[in-house]
Amino acid sequence: MMATVLATPPGFRSLSEPIAHDAPRAFVFRGAELLVRESDLALPDPAVLKALGLEPSQVFPVGLFDKEYCSAAWIAKDREAPAGYVFRPLRSFFGRFDEGLLSVAGRAFQIADWARNHRFCGACGKPMAPVAGERAMRCECGHVAYPRIAPAMMVLVKKGAAILLARNVIVPPGGRMSALAGFLEPGESVEDAIHREVHEEVGLFVKDLRYFASQSWPFPGSLMIAFTAEYAGGEIRCDPAEIAEAHWFGPGDKLPDLPPPQSISRALIEANKP
Ligand SMILES: [Zn+2]
Predict the structure, then answer these.
(1) What residues are neighbours of ligand 1 (ion), with CB under 5 Å?
(2) What is the pLDDT of residues 223-250, one digit of tens each?
(3) Residue 4: which pLDDT band, with cuts at 50, 70 and 90?
C-alpha cells in the first residue's frame, strides 16, 4: 500500500502552547496561499517576519518538526508579499515540498484558517481568545470552538476484478475519473455514508466494506477516509447533479486520467488496479 502523504510526519510533535525558538519555521497564510521566498521556496526568515508586523492574535503554535518550532499565522487578504517573497497556493507545493514539510504546511494552514475564522464568537459575536494549553478558542459567553475537521468517505467499488470510476460534473468530458467520495452527514457512521453516497451517486448497492487508509486533506479541513467495497446489486444510474459518468474498468481496459499521485484516491486506485 502506498503511504498517504498528508498525515503526521516522522519527527513531528504537536504543540498547543508557543515556545521560544531562535529560528522558528513560520507558515504565513493569506487565505489559502503560503508565503515563501520566490527564489527557493524557503519560509520567511525572522527579519521578514518582523517586517510583516504580525499581531500575537494572528500567530498560533503548530508543533516541533525535526526539533524546530513551527508556527502558523494568517494575514489580511489585502496584504502584499514583502520584496523577494510571493504568496503561492498551498496546493502548488505538492511535489515541490518534501512530504514531511507538506504535511506540516497542511496542518499549519488548517490552524491558521481556523484561527482567522474564529476571531469572533459564532454564538454571540463577541471576540474569541485562545484557550491556554488547548487548541481551542473560547468566548466569554462560554462558547468554545475547536478546529473544524470534516470527515469525508471515499470508496472504490469493485465487481470481480473490475473497479468503478466516476467523473464528477465539475470535470470536463475526457477528464479525470476517480473513486466515489462525499462528506458525512451529522449522525452517520462512515459506513452509513458509504452506503448512502454510493446509492445516491450511482444507484448501486455495496457490501464487504474494507478500510484502506485515511489522509488529511486541508482544502479546507477534510479528513478523507478511504474504503473498498464489493458490488452487491443495482444498475449504474448517475445522479446528474454530481456524477457525469461512471463505468466499470476491468482487466485490459485503458484507464482514464486518474487523480494526482500524492492523493489518497490515487493510492486507493493503484492498490486495486484491475
Ligand atoms: Zn460568545
Answers:
(1) 121, 123-124, 126, 139, 141, 143
(2) 999 999 999 999 999 999 999 999 999 9
(3) low
How far, in Å, CA of 231 to CA of 247, rounded? 13
Cell numbers representing residue 47 in the block:
527579519
This prediction's pTM: 0.88
Q: Are 48 and 41 in contact (CB under 8 A)?
A: no
Question: Ligand 1 centroid to 146 CA: how many Å?
Answer: 14
For 81-150, the three-class secondary structure string (H helix, E strand, C coil) is CCCCEEEEEHHHHCCCCCHHHHHHHHHHHHHHHHHHHCCECCCCCCECEECCCCCCEECCCCCEECCCCE
Residue type (1 letter), 255: L
259: nearest Cα among 217, 196, 199: 217
> Angle CA(215)–CA(64)–CA(79) in degrees, nearest 5?
80
Whole-number Å distance, alpha carbon 137 to ligand 1 midpoint, is 10
**Residue 145 Cα, ligand 1 centroid: separation in angstroms?**
10
Distance from C-alpha of 67 to C-alpha of 255, rounded to nearest angstrom: 43
Instruction: Give the cell for residue 148.
Output: 473544524
- Distance of CA 127 from the midpoint of ligand 1 (Å): 8
User: Ligand 1: distance of its center to the CA of 125 in Å?
Assistant: 6
> Ligand 1: distance of its center to the CA of 138 in Å?
8
Q: How confident is the model over 148-186, as pLDDT tens digits?
A: 999 999 999 999 999 999 999 999 999 999 999 999 999
The three three-digit cell numbers of residue 272, written as one number: 486495486
CB 239 within 8 A of CB 201: yes
- In whole angstroms, what is the distance from residue 153 CA to residue 162 CA? 20
**Contact criterion met (CB below 8 Å) for 33 and 79:** no
